[in-house]
Amino acid sequence: MMGGTALMAWSVALPLIGAVLSLLVGRAGVRLVAGVASVATLIASSLVAWEVSTQGVLRQQLGGWGAPLGIEWRADGLAALMLLTIAVVGPLISVHALDHLGDREDREFLPLWLFIWCALNALVLSADAFNLYVTLELTTLGAVSLIVVRRDLPGLDAGLRYLLFALPGSLCYLLGIAFLYGAYATLDVGMLAQRVQSGPVTWVAAGLVTVGLCLKTPLFPLHVWLPPTYTGAPTPVTALLSALISKGSFYVLLRLWLEVFAPVLDAEVGQLLGLLGAVAVLWGSVLALSQTQLKRVVAYSSVAQIGYMFLVFPMATSGARAGVIYLVVSHAAAKASMFVAVGNIHQAVGITELGGVQGLAYRMPFTFLAMALGGISLIGIPPSGGFIAKWLLLNESIGTQQWWWALVLLGGSLLAAAYVFRILRGSFLPLPPGVTVRSIPLGNELAPLALALIALLLGLVPWFPLDLLAVGASR
Amino acid sequence: MMNTWLPLSVLLSSLLPGLIIFLLAEEQRRTRTVLNLLAAVTKLLLTAVMAWGVFQGRQYETRLPFFPKADLVLRADSFSLLFITLSAVLWFVTTIYAVGYLEGTDHRSRFFGFFSLCVASTMGIALAGNLLTFFLFYEMLTLSTYPLVIHRGTPEALRAGNVYLRYTLSGATLLLAGVVLLYSLTGSVEFTERGALGAVASHRTELVVAFVLLIAGLGVKTALVPLHGWLPVAMVAPAPVSALLHAVAVVKAGAFGITRIIYDVYGVYLVHDLGVMQPLAIVAAITILYGSVRALQQGDLKKRLAYSTVSQVAYIVLGVSLFGTVSTIGGLVHLVHQGVMKITLFFCAGNFAEELHVHRVSELRGVGRRMPLTTGAFTIAALGMIGIPPIAGFISKWYLGIGALEAHQPWMVVVLLTSSLLNAGYFLPIVYSAWFQAPREEWKPSTRGWEIGLLLLLPTVATAVLSLAAGLFAGAELSPLGWTRLITEREFRP
Amino acid sequence: MSGHDLASLAVIAALCVPLVLTVVVMIPVLRGIGMALAPWAALPALGLGLGTGASVHWKPVLLGMRLYAPDEVTRTYLLFTGILWLFSGLFARGYLREDSRRASFWGFFLATLAGNVGAVLAQDVASFYLFFAMMTFCAYGLVVHERTEAAARAGRVYIIMALLGEVLLLAAFFLTVGTRINLSLAEVPRVVAESSSREVICVLILGGFGVKVGALLLHMWLPLAHPVAPAPGSAVLSGTIIKVGVLGWLRFLPLGHASLPTLGTVCVAAGLTAAFYGVAVGLTQREAKTVLAYSSISQMGFLTLAVGLALGAPEAAPVLIGAVLVYAVHHSLAKGLLFLGTGLLPATGRKGWRGVLVLVGLTWSALEIAGAPLTSGALAKLALKSAEAAAHASEALPTLLSLAAVGSTLIMARFLERTVPKAPEQGSPGAGGMLLAWVLLLVVDTALLLWPPVGREELPHLLESKSLVSAAWPVVAGVLLTGLVWRSRRWRSWRVPEIPPGDVLWPMARVLLPGWRLLTADADREPPQQEDIGEGPPSRFARFRRASLDEFENAEEGLSQLSHVGLALLLFLGVFLLLLVR
Amino acid sequence: MNPWAVYALSGVAMFSVGLVGLFSHQHVVKRILASNIAGSGVLIVLVALARRAPSGVPDPVPHALVLTGIVVSVSSTALGVALARRMARLRADAARASEPPPGSGGEGP
Fold it and tell me: Where does the NADH:quinone oxidoreductase/Mrp antiporter transmembrane domain lie (chain C) (predicted)?
């Protein structure tokens, strides 16, 4: 049995090896190599999770240098859960991408995705603030390359837009880290947590880090790049962006905030983030209601869902932490399933309008089942991961006497219901005349369903992720 | 061993077939029907075993880990069995009815899949051993009934579905708020006889707020005025769905929940002490009268029945919100009685629509000659609704009336009796014109030998007989009334 | 089988034979058998009335059903109920020979019979209510049997009044039984007497059963319903069914247990008024059966009066109850004879031996009602008067009763006047069965005068000269008065203005009906066409929704400008720091 | 004022200029350049921070960070420019293919 620390390295290395190999092999081998790499990484990630859940937090000093000089990797319950999420959700999206994109894109998609996977895993495991920056940048660059994989105008437009909004975000983050290093002479998150004190440098650093990451995630009012980018990118890429890549920056923010900043900052700043989150919930949901493009509805829903995630900051308790991580995970599965389903619809009828779903419930039952289940999780109706997350957050908001966040959560889910059922209900109408439904591969139908079932499963056995999350939770 | 698995098996006996049915192709009619009936019969048997066990004092509980602090608990106590038995029996007949009713229409796999899910949710609601579990299944019910409401796929059905969702999801939100509030107070809310909140009884404000939230949330499904708007609109659904919605699943789930909240979460003494019982009783009384008056004004048969449900289900709420044993028995027993009678009425309405394409009250003239058995069933159920002995509704009314006096609220008797008169006002004209008036034009004679297909006729007659039997043999030990007395004795035992 | 078993079997048979036959008649295949047996359905009840049964207690049925108590009230009621239903049934077999809705009639007839017998047998509150309601609702089928507009209207009035009565009764029962849920009838008078809401209960009982009895101001359904029903139906309606209302009074009022003088006085007054009022309105009627119905109202006034006296004077209650029973037996059979006679006369014709026989019988029954000497009427009046004496009622009462007897004579004369001349001279063939049944009933009626089931102790007094005189003079006066009027009409043609049957109903209906119409107007409106729903201008809510969504869209567009994003970024950072610096 | 503080402040100033540039220009290449300026500013701050005490060995860690930062910034600039070029070409093609050119959103040249 391999040691837990080695497993962490494998979980990062395997996708990288896969990416390189798949670039080398010819057209025929790409799928095979990527498949093998995916399965291997999944196994490695699961083993990490297993180790974490049985043995507690895993640490590894890269190259033998300890902090502060060297770089540390650390896998606590949160990291392990994220590894698992990426390892399950990502491959399912890429399965869908195989038949959705063209042949050439196919060859480029898989290596790029494996590369991003590697970067994301590294990001999740990093316990070093600068290393987090690097992995974040790698993810961004990989994501931009994926967005433009089709090399068409909308894709290029979206890719550039993404890049040019992500760059200032990363730079703000980097500047903040620089200040922190200047003040406390360490980049290790754990050591920062011990050394950090309230003071102007910390404030500015925290402000820069927060704003930068909020721009990347993105939080209202910095969300404006999201809808056009998500709409312009190829659908599988949008799914990856929404489900996993945007979670990367949020993960960094969550880590730093909960472990480093929250103890030394005024609670009011947390309220500010919460307030912006609340506005995002309202804003995203209402705009989702007014969209006519299917994909934009789902994109604006992401704006709203990200808003929920920021409700963790005003509460900043372990319960809220668990709730928000749960939200991240179940949103990853649910939103991926929604986007992939949208891709299927587009592929089948070639209509991007909301009305395009008419009559499809009977033609593409799996896709619509997936959409329904995913939507349920977004709304937060049981049984779904979204419900568990909402439940935990609600409990926390009442428990910390901040009942106004409960109102946001409850009102937000009603709005979510409004836009989710706006999509679903049309599908029960009879098929309009003149529309032909192309059949799509079974794999494409099953991928969203599998994703949605994960969201469902998260709502049925919440004790497993919650137990895992509790490992290494500081507070 | 059996004691832990039985509640779960009851749940799974409709959940699993439901999931399998989704996967069946539209043409696999025989397989689907066999599966449906098999599941229904299995559930009946399991329920019977469990009912017998509970009657003997055995405990049945399935506990599944869910949250670190809160398990999913399925527990069969006497009250849940009352509801389960009702659902299991009525599901069985409704399945038969639905097989007949939907013969030759589209999307039957989907229909029966959701149909089973709907019943599974109802089972879950009945068996829930704590508030969280209850809420989970309550929401599942909302979701599994929506596709049934919009089953026809017409714009009108979709609109009804919208209204349905708007109401039920808003209600669920309120309910969730209440549930969370209670959980944050106590950490865990197990359903316990005589209440689970004794330890936090001093938090009066929170408890009252939570109570209002819970009742408002549940009141949507229960169709308490002014939260009843969805019910008449949801009438566009096919007849078996309406039957299920009104008699077993949705409306009943709400009433069942309110009862649980009052008796097993707060405890009747605490609710009384908090002073929230009287307002609830007043709301119920208003609903009773409002529903009856509105029913008078409906020309559409199903709409009239829907408003009648609004009124009748409030009887249950009235019963449980009057402080006293007798009214509680009346309320609980009406849960069963109303179910059996109302399902009969909807079956009849479905039969009329299916066989003669009659939807409006005014078109029912002389239908008794053409469809005597259906009209007979309708008559029995309608008279029962009015509260004429020996049909089940009489027993409910008897207990409710006495209970109102026991609770020193004579005005409730006036409400009850006025409502009876109004019930008579909207049911008896139908009965009269069906039997004693000549049809406008002669109906086409049946081509089948019976007045309508046996799959539609038998369930109708069966439930009519049940409504008669439930009243006529109310004194029997295992009658709904006997069972309810057992439950209530346990709740009020000092 | 032991004697006890046999006795309880008799009770069960009395109730279940009609019930089973009802079901048999409903099943098309067995209908023929059922209809053949139906006329005899009351036989077990009659048998039980003659013999003695044993109490039956079925715990599982309803709320614990108890049947039969071997008391005088039960036996007497069973006896006359059985007799009248039996002969009405036999009569109906002939009467309905050619009726196409025979099956319907028999179904309702049998079910009503079961209800009637059950109400007499019932020994607990819930069962009593069950059978009472069953009788009430099934009798509706007899009322609307003809399916004419008049029948429908009468049926409507009947059912509305009945429902009102039921509601009052329910309220009374709730108050009576309380948390005991159900109560044996034997305990009821005591419980009511001890109840804190005794007066309320009594008022509700008086009102609730008063509808059935046809007490003053609750009588409106009677003159409408009795005439439209087929003759056998009218006979049982007027003969036995309204007597069940009186039975209710006897069972539920605290007679002998409590003294309620005020209520008693009200009852006495209402009874007396009804006695005269019934005659007064009845005399104006043209339809023979309506005349009879008003006579019933008048006659029931006497019973109301007796019950009122018993309410006020507990010590005299047993005697008064006895008198009521005597009166009930008398009126039941006599009124039955009269109603059946109106159905028989057209069939036999008034000429020929049959006609004469019927005319003699009718006159005899009319005299009975009038209370002529040596008739059952005289016996009943005698019982009533001696009971009044026991109750120390007002001195004026016997006089008033005699005056009322004049009225009875008049109204009977009016009845004969409206019946006999209209009848055809020659009858139709096949009236034999009917005639036989009728004559047998007449015989039984007469036999019961000689061997009365109750009030036997009064029998010797019947021949005393004092009672002969007091019975004879009102009749004589009545006959003279009739003759006078008859003669006067010869000289000058004048007509009595007709008060519409149901009298006070019509002004009431004029007030109530518009309200009801308003309430149910929507039900009769046709639904709007499908096209109307989706089209048309958007609602205000939809417009508001659209407008606010547009606002959001505009704001989003503003936010999307690149420079605005930069500003937002700075602002975010600024507020963040501001919050910390502060 | 310490020279390293001057360095650091000028780095912050460069970062600010770059940031303003990023959000005030529509042209893609200009924005890529602005991001480069901002990035350089951050790197200058890092370099400045390496010298912690007036005397003594400078901290090696920021140097390593700066090197890494330069690599990252080069690669992102390269990617950005490549994308911008390709987009310009595609736009030109589209414009040539159909007159008048199709209305295009975004912030291209």
Answer: 122-347
